[in-house]
Amino acid sequence: MCAARLLVDVHTHVYLPRYATMLRSRAAVPRIIPWTGGEERLLILDHEPSGGRPVGSQYWDREEKLKFMDRHGIDVSVVSTANPWLDFLSPTQAQEMATELNADLEEYCSTGPAIPDSTTKRLYGFGLLPLVPTVSVDALLENVKQIAAAPHLKGLIMGTRGLGKGLDDEALDPVWAAIEAAGLVIFLHPHYGVENSAFGEKENGHVLPLALGFPFETTIATTRLILSGVFDRFPDLRLLLAHSGGALPALSSRLASCIDHDPLVAARLKHDARYYVGKLYLDAVSYGPEEMGFTSEVLSRAARYKDITPSKMIANRSEGSKRMLFGTDHPFFPPLNSVEKWKSVVENLEAIEDVQGWSDADKEGVRGANAVSLFSL
Amino acid sequence: MCAARLLVDVHTHVYLPRYATMLRSRAAVPRIIPWTGGEERLLILDHEPSGGRPVGSQYWDREEKLKFMDRHGIDVSVVSTANPWLDFLSPTQAQEMATELNADLEEYCSTGPAIPDSTTKRLYGFGLLPLVPTVSVDALLENVKQIAAAPHLKGLIMGTRGLGKGLDDEALDPVWAAIEAAGLVIFLHPHYGVENSAFGEKENGHVLPLALGFPFETTIATTRLILSGVFDRFPDLRLLLAHSGGALPALSSRLASCIDHDPLVAARLKHDARYYVGKLYLDAVSYGPEEMGFTSEVLSRAARYKDITPSKMIANRSEGSKRMLFGTDHPFFPPLNSVEKWKSVVENLEAIEDVQGWSDADKEGVRGANAVSLFSL
């Protein structure tokens, strides 16, 4: 099989059995509770509507992941623990759980199948760091080392809280340095959204926190990283943003303008904000060809803003597409009705196909070749 | 002068003298306070950095507005009271102030200059409603009537709180009906952003609340309008969104997907969320040609989602550009250094010029002809 033809899913989640057992043992959110008919429900946000989400073997059983992959023609998945990771544990618990789950995930991948006639496995993973308040930086560095040494772990997933003060906390600098040096990819993923009061009192199910809160959280976290100079200090850090970077691409010129007009911030950064956006990788989980085409323009125009005086270079969708990677968000977003292929997956694949200005090679890149290259699969 | 050549600014603010006097009399935010050297400072958000923003005659003096217009080649401005409008007043105060300020604004426009050799004035306005908790709907309807009867008021500006429960409050239905019947344009503008704790503890000046909080607020408010069925009940409502609709265009396919997967909401709306986005008007205040080109695609693709089964129509930037309108956000975003033309204005004009796929006529439309048509100038 030709690497350029692989379909690779970089946004696909798992609750490993050890994690699910821990969630079942808990009395507070996040937790898994028994439901009628022997089923279980997952509560991951406060005030979950509909009594929580149905949760089952698709979350923890490797065979179910592989069946989902087969059904959708996905050759390789880079799986990651779903939110909220270890955020709610004590430092000691988080450290122990991170170490055990990273070992579990390496085994999940290494003992899984390979692509026929290839040494490439079908499953790779993003590990976890025990990112909770008061954990020691040494403990974090230990887990970075563990992940870097695990052949099938290609990076790590993290939320936006860091040690409790967010990702713009200088205390994390040694962690960024170690991740950068190890060449690991950080998959930045939301969980908290924004304060629920913003969404009003009407019953809108999960729509507002998921459709808006999640991307807002990713946008804020990444903007705070930019403003704190993390990308100036760690120019080779490789950050993959969930949900195509949320609203950041669309607000990046406004961000640049606001920085430019604020005496407190204007002189602090080496580059225009739009330059840093071009250092990011974005999953192609945005459900529309216009969105994908646009984000590829934003990624490519970063080159325009390398120097103080922006050039007049026209954005090149083809160039920008090289930093975009297919994802499914499985096992979230199951279709309401039983169907062969999940609508959310089909929509994202069709969107990739329909982007104006992407060549066939660009589309192959987004579907898999970019991931093969980014993760050295 | 040919109407197609007019430069029309639809996003330009004023604190009329009566409003400034009221702000000076206040002991709490929002307020205007004396500053060193006979200057004044404006405090409109809690915890303003830098002791607040310099405020002066550019906020209340019509001659200053006209000078700014002349300096930037702006023929017509549709001025609106800047946030936070009347949100902080009692119902009685808000009602009285709305009525007086609407009369003041009509006079500000009607006694101002006309375009040479034309009956078109250089100044038009968006009026105010006393949108505060416990105000009577009759009072709101009185002011809608007042605005509709004022020849130079072409619509009204509003924030996102409505009567305290947001704009998805059914209590506002008679107000939408009256505004729709009068053919007035609603200019929806943010003020509150999102909960500041999301922005962390680092000193980033105004950057995060302005660059992200503002567009997030507009996005949430408009999404709540969509979810509540306002555009199904009032299909001819004309809503102009500040800052190009914030993050809504970029998140509209994600929104559609989240609605589609949520049993509580999926069956409630007549159309795909992206259809309603095409009913909106967006100012062209997004500081980048890629952003503007993209939002014009999102506006035009709405037609694809009119029916339950989306068509394969390719987005048409030219078509979408007809719902986009130049704006400056004056007197906000003054450049840090004294210059002839404001950088923010030049950037937005250059961005319009640089959009790929807009014809010269499309660009003339965004610069002015669309506003001439929308407001019947």
TrEMBL record, chains A, B:
Gene Ontology molecular-function annotations: carboxy-lyase activity; hydrolase activity
InterPro entries for the chain: ACMSD, Amidohydro-rel, Metal_Hydrolase
Amidohydrolase-related domain residues: 8-376
GO BP: secondary metabolic process
Gene3D superfamilies: Metal-dependent hydrolases
Key word Lyase present: yes
Signal peptide (from-to): none
Entries under Pfam families matching the protein: Amidohydro_2 (PF04909)
GO cellular component, one term: cytosol
Keywords tagged on the record: Decarboxylase, Hydrolase, Lyase
Record flagged with keyword Lyase: yes
Family: Belongs to the metallo-dependent hydrolases superfamily.
Name the UniProt record assigns to this protein: Amidohydrolase 2
Organism: Cylindrobasidium torrendii FP15055 ss-10
